[in-house]
């Protein structure tokens, strides 16, 4: 049982980072859909930098910077150029995913990849990023709901015109949220080779990026509920693996389906819970006279 | 601001000129993307000319390459249409692979359960089952979107994951082929296989989809439904005020998309694999989205863009073998073409703005 909890908490970490990153961008109105690619990029950079240029910490940092750069491109293209958020997000998904495989191929080639050292455990058999991820969720909640700047950020996602009229810089807020969000997504990806496999592979992300989007919706774009949702998704993931290995009476495929079906049910039945930022995915044009 | 003038129908020459001007951003985007990729390939220490020659000529050097390309073109076109049609109504269908898998499931169910039937009965049954299953799967998302306002991006992505588990369950438990090793079903009855023609054999799904693509392009341009679709996509509020039932149009666009993706799944089963296997969806969803976006939602452009992408995809392996440039370059190339095309929009807008300012001054 304690084994189950340990595994669940480790499995939760990537979900948590990426879903909180999605939430943070989304609360400012930027709907990022390049998670899958950014995680792959984070995984590749995290792995390669850890291996070649000194340790996991540097790897995480460089991955975060790369993710933030891609996030900033999304922010720039959707604020200054007012391009379609979803289309740009998809283009960045392809580019970051392709760049990830390419970087790996160039540095490692077709050889047997060496394993990187896993993140060291600190307490309760959990590595440091577990605590960072949970602390980050608390921090985000505090920032968004207990500080002025957090409320300003949320107001940009709810009604940018009103925010603008109160002197909040919508463009700058969105750039910041998009960059921070992208950085978190890449960190979530970089965690994968460091905690699980020790190596990078093109299939390492395995849909977790798309699931993080689902998680953001599942948690009603609120950090505390996203934490709970990530725990649930991770527990189902571990349960499905267990069912696959030892069998628990029902086919493991049906256990694996549960988080997806649960998310859809939440979206259907939990109207009040499943709030979505009003301006999610919509660009703000301060010259436009049509209010959203 | 602009004045509204009712223009006479443009002459053929004017329309050709307009098409030519419209093609400039495409050509530039493709050229710039190729140049950037050439620089990357050169930096990696490979020969870009050799790489591009390999990637571009592989499909045309012999008939095998051509048939490979056309076989790839079929699902690419269908999935690109499955993305582009809801896009016309301003909806995003990211569920192409789930709908395709359900289509394959419907087809393989018919092919295995009714394997003794003759071709005239089984083949149409198999195709219809695939189309219906795909439409049904997309119908769930459409219903959730219409009835409960569930974001269609979210529901289609989630249903993709559900479909992977369905595929895994069917292929590794229910109809598993124990001899195959891995999640693979047993083969469908011979009556369910699409006839093949020519040498090397090409399945006739290619012809079917070519006809379908032409029909779709004409239908989108000439029919009331096509007009309503565009009206909803351009301005949903205005369309609603003019009496178009916007909800119905959006739902129908999703269901048609599901049917097309389901057809892709059925053709993959009946024409290519003759069974269902894990990974049957390949990366057709991503490529379908790229194609749909490069074609900018134009159903007429989709088959041509799909052919270009199919050439690149088939040539990727050959590029790596002959020049050493990694296959990933092809994905980067495709992503860059899309990104530069998007950028070109902004550039044309700026140029137009500057021209109108100059005219006003």
Automatic annotation (TrEMBL), chain A:
One of its GO terms (cellular component) is plasma membrane. Its main location: membrane. It comes from the Bacteria. The keyword Transmembrane applies. InterPro entries: ABC_transp_permease (IPR001851). The keyword Metal-binding does not apply. One of its GO terms (molecular function) is transmembrane transporter activity. The chain crosses the membrane at residues 6-25, 60-79, 86-108, 128-145, 175-193, 257-276. This is Ribose ABC transporter, permease protein (RbsC-2). Pfam families: BPD_transp_2. Keywords: Cell membrane, Membrane, Transmembrane, Transmembrane helix. It is a multi-pass membrane protein.
From TrEMBL, chain B:
This is Sugar ABC transporter, permease protein. GO terms for molecular function: transmembrane transporter activity. It is a multi-pass membrane protein. PANTHER family: ABC TRANSPORTER, PERMEASE PROTEIN, GUANOSINE ABC TRANSPORTER PERMEASE PROTEIN NUPP. InterPro entries: ABC_transp_permease. Pfam families: BPD_transp_2. Its main location: membrane. Keywords: Cell membrane, Membrane, Transmembrane, Transmembrane helix. The lineage of its organism: Bacteria, Bacillati, Actinomycetota, Actinomycetes, Micrococcales. One of its GO terms (cellular component) is plasma membrane. It is found in: Cell membrane. The chain crosses the membrane at residues 21-44, 73-92, 99-115, 121-145, 202-220, 249-272, 284-312, 324-343. It comes from Nostocoides australiense Ben110. The keyword Cell membrane applies.
């Amino acid at each position: 049982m304690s084994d189950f909890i340990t595994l669940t908490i480790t499995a939760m970490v990537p979900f948590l980072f990426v879903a909180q990153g999605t939430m943070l961008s989304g609360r400012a109105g930027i709907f990022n859909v390049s998670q899958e690619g950014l995680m792959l990029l984070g995984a590749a950079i995290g792995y390669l930098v850890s291996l070649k240029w000194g340790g996991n910490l540097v790897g995480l940092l460089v991955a975060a910077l790369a993710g933030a750069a891609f996030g900033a491109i999304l922010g720039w293209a959707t604020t200054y150029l007012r391009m379609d958020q979803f289309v740009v997000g998809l283009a960045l998904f392809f580019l970051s995913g392709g760049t990830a495989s390419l970087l790996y191929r160039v540095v490692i080639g077709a050889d047997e990849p060496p394993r990187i050292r896993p993140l060291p455990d600190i307490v309760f058999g959990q590595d440091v990023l577990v605590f960072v991820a949970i602390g980050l969720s608390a921090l985000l909640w505090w920032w968004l709901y207990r500080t002025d700047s957090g409320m300003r950020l949320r107001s940009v996602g709810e009604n940018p015109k009103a925010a603008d009229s109160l002197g909040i810089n919508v463009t700058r807020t969105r750039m910041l949220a998009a960059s921070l969000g992208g950085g978190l997504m890449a960190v979530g990806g970089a965690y994968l080779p460091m905690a699980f496999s020790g190596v990078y592979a093109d299939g390492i992300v395995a849909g977790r990026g798309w699931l993080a989007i689902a998680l953001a919706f599942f948690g009603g774009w609120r950090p505390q509920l996203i934490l709970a949702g990530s725990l649930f998704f991770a527990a189902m993931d571990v349960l499905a693996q267990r069912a696959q290995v030892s069998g628990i009476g029902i086919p493991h495929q049906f256990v694996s389906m549960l988080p997806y079906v649960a998310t859809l049910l939440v979206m259907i039945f939990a109207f009040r819970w499943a709030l979505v930022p009003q301006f999610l995915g919509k660009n703000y044009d301060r010259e436009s006279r049509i209010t959203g | 601001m602009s004045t509204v003038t009712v223009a006479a129908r443009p002459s053929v020459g004017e329309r050709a000129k307009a098409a030519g001007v419209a093609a400039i951003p495409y050509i530039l985007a493709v050229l710039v993307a190729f140049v950037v990729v050439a620089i990357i390939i050169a930096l990696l220490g490979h020969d870009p000319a050799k790489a591009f020659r390999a990637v571009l000529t592989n499909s045309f050097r012999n008939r095998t390459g051509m048939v490979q390309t056309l076989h790839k073109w079929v699902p690419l076109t269908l999935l690109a249409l499955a993305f582009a049609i809801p896009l016309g109504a301003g909806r995003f269908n990211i569920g192409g692979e789930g709908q395709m898998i359900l289509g394959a499931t419907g087809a393989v169910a018919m092919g295995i359960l009714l394997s003794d039937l003759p071709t005239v009965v089984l083949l149409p049954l198999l195709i219809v089952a695939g189309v219906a299953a795909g439409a049904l799967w997309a119908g769930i998302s459409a219903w959730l979107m219409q009835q409960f306002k569930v974001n269609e991006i979210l529901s289609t992505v989630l249903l993709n994951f559900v479909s992977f588990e369905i595929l895994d369950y069917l292929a590794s438990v229910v109809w598993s082929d124990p001899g195959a090793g891995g999640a693979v079903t047993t083969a469908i009855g011979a009556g369910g296989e699409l006839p093949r023609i020519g040498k090397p054999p090409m399945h006739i799904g290619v012809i079917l989809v070519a006809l379908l693509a032409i029909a779709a392009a004409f239908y989108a341009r000439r029919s009331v439904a096509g007009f309503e679709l565009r009206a909803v996509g351009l301005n949903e509020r205005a369309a609603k005020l003019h009496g178009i039932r916007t909800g119905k149009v959006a739902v129908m666009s999703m269901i048609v998309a599901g049917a097309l993706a389901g057809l892709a799944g059925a053709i993959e089963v009946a024409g290519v694999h003759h069974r269902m296997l894990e990974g049957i969806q390949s990366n057709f969803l991503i490529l379908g989205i790229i194609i749909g976006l490069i074609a900018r939602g134009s159903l007429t452009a989709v088959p041509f863009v799909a052919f270009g992408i199919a050439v690149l995809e088939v040539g990727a392996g050959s590029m790596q073998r002959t020049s050493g440039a990694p296959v990933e370059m092809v994905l980067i190339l495709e992503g860059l073409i899309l990104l530069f095309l998007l950028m070109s929009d902004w550039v044309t807008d700026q140029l137009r703005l500057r021209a109108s300012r100059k005219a006003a001054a």
